[in-house]
From TrEMBL:
Record InterPro entries: Actin_motor_Myosin, FERM/acyl-CoA-bd_prot_sf, FERM_2, FERM_central, FERM_domain, IRS_PTB, PH-like_dom_sf
Compositional bias of kind Low complexity: 241-251
Protein name in the entry: MYO10 protein
Residue ranges of coiled coil: none
Species of provenance: Serilophus lunatus (silver-breasted broadbill)
Lineage of producing organism: Eukaryota, Metazoa, Chordata, Craniata, Vertebrata
Biased composition (Polar residues): 260-271
Region feature (Disordered): 226-271
């Protein structure tokens, strides 16, 4: 999850996590130690975010201009544009290599400071850093939220499924936009193979996702665990993830709804 960018934190912390990973894998720094590739230590998207955005391509203002542009595209003008794109791509690749080398050097410097730290200590320090994120222990899914049929366009979010609550995050943001425990969820189910519906009190949330089965199975797992601890088992088994009938959750699985508190979630780490 760290390497895929699902633990929102600073670059400094990401470099420290990478150094701890190296200490755990290779023990103390040595020039002879095997070096993993940078993408095995540090989220690649952070490096790509440093690159300048592609230049804006002006649109032709009239039909005549579009026609002239089309005629020129197959001639010298088109060759010039292709050459410019190739040169720009080459510069970006060079810039990416420079950023990667700079980041690896910073990671190695932090690794050198960990001399003498044993593998269990490195792992414990790694988990302690990750636990600082309130969503620790949740599994995150990329979803597009359709709040209602008449609402605005879909919003790309992270859907976090944890042992105590379900949360919605704006990608890269450490605090959730909304969070609700299982007692607030009245039902859930799959409308089709790419649409998942979650009913929270008086709201119906529709998610477009390629991981409908995984979300439904994880919700059923946490529901069964919570129900076994705090509530009588339902008389009928939950429906399958792709059933047209939604799963109905038993109530009283959590106290009255309250705002998200800034504290680590309880549960096993998926980092």
């Amino acid at each position: 999850m760290v390497l895929r960018g699902y633990v929102p934190t600073s670059e400094e912390t990401l470099q420290t996590l990478a150094a701890l990973r190296l200490q755990s894998l290779n023990s103390d720094f040595s020039t002879h130690a095997p070096f993993p590739r940078l993408e095995e230590l540090f989220p690649p998207h952070v490096l790509h975010a440093r690159l300048p955005p592609p230049p804006h391509q002006p649109r032709a203002k009239c039909r005549g201009a579009r026609l002239r542009a089309g005629l020129l595209a197959g001639g010298l003008w088109g060759q010039a544009l292709a050459k410019q794109r190739a040169e720009r791509d080459q510069r970006l690749r060079g810039r990416l290599r420079e950023e990667g080398a700079s980041t690896m050097a910073a990671i190695v410097e932090k690794w050198k400071l960990l001399q003498g730290m044993g593998r269990p200590e490195a792992m414990a320090a790694y988990l302690a850093l990750v636990r600082e994120w309130p969503g620790f222990g949740s599994t995150l899914f990329d979803v597009d939220l359709h709040a209602s049929p008449m609402g605005a366009g879909p919003q790309h979010l992270w859907l976090g499924i944890g042992a105590k609550a379900v949360s919605l995050y704006k990608p890269g943001e450490p605090e959730p936009l909304d969070s609700f425990c299982y007692g607030r969820i009245s039902s859930f189910g799959a409308s089709d193979s790419s649409t998942f519906r979650l009913s929270v009190e008086d709201r119906d949330l529709l998610f477009e996702t390629s991981q409908v089965d995984e979300i439904a199975q994880l919700l059923n797992t946490y529901l069964a665990s919570a129900g076994a601890r705090q509530s009588p088992q339902p008389q009928e088994p939950p429906t399958s993830p792709l059933s047209s009938e939604p799963s109905v959750l038993p109530q009283r699985l959590c106290p009255a709804a309250s705002p998200w508190q800034h504290q680590p979630s309880v549960g096993s780490s998926h980092s």
